[in-house]
Design brief:
Low-confidence stretches: 269-273
Structural class: alpha+beta
Helix content: 40-55%
Shape: elongated
Number of helices: 6
Strand content: 15-25%
Strand order of the largest sheet: 1-4-5-8
Radius of gyration: 21 Å
Number of strands: 10
Amino acid sequence: GAVAAGTVVGTVAVAEASGSWEGADVAATAVADGDGWVLTGEKHFVFDGVRADEIVVAARVGDATADDGIALFVVPQSAVVAAPMDDIDASRQYATVVLDGARVGSDRVLGEPGACGPALRRAMDEAAAALSAEMVGTCQAIFDIVHTYVGEREQFGVKIGSFQAIKHKLANMFVALESARATTYFAALTIAEDDDRRRLAVATAKASVSDCQRLIAQEGIQCLGGIGYTWEHDMHMYVKRVKATAAMFGSGSLHRARVAEMMGLGVAAAVRT
């Protein structure tokens, strides 16, 4: 409730050195100790990890592997050591969070310890869908900047937007953007309706929007020419944001492999961010 009201900053810590957001790859451990738990491990790519008041940490209990044995704990900032990570996107802060024997009480356990794999998967799906929607908006901003620019910039006495090569670039950007938008909207609907196709829809959306950002970021800078390569232009704010976001909650390659696996193509989702 306090997080929703904005009086407390909350975040989630799942990924570790491998960059994987899969519960199966969680190596941080939690050991029962009296009426509490002791957590050990290191988390990476934690949103607002330095400024968050409370951090939901995914850790493994017992000897179970894969998604089994996952537990979730609400850990206060005072119990961890958080350090900001260097990142190309200065508008968003990520952190490395070290759990060196962090102790929490039993009242800070979410769900049943060791049985939180499905809940974590759903949370990651919702997070990936939300970031996909943000990436669509960021790509739209890049497209709008380019579209306006080519309609104003002149070379050889004519608008550069009249050149066939530029028209082709914008057409390809628009198709990629609309594809990403459609798949992201569908993913959001499957979450809202608790549709059984949720995991497939989310993976498809993240893969589609990752392809979209790669094309739009590259073509966007190229269409602007020299000014597009200068950091003082707004283009770089959007490009850096969308590039950093593309790796969060699973890269496009990882989600594409997941789609193939769910379609029965026998492709193991071994790709990491």
